[in-house]
C-alpha cells in the first residue's frame, strides 16, 4: 500500500531496503507482489536498480551476457 500510495521518500526508502533481496522475493508467492509494485511504482533509477539485480548486473555499464 505504501509503495503505491506513499510519499516519494517513503517509496524510495522501502525499495532501497529491499534491494539485494529482489531475486529471492520474486520467487515467493506474496513477496513477488511487492516486487511487482516496486517495479510499477518505483522511479526510473529504482526500477533500473531492481532490474540490474534480477539480471545479475551490478554495474549499469557492464554488458549483459
UniProtKB/TrEMBL annotation:
- Report the GO molecular function annotations: mRNA binding
Q: Where is the PUM-HD domain?
A: 1-65
Q: Which GO terms describe its cellular component?
A: cytoplasm
Q: What is the lineage of its organism?
A: Eukaryota, Viridiplantae, Streptophyta, Embryophyta, Tracheophyta
Q: Name one GO biological process term.
A: regulation of translation
Q: Which InterPro entries match?
A: ARM-like, ARM-type_fold, PUM-HD, Pumilio_RNA-bd_rpt
Keywords, sorted A to Z: Repeat, Translation regulation
Query: Per its record, how is this protein called by name?
Result: PUM-HD domain-containing protein
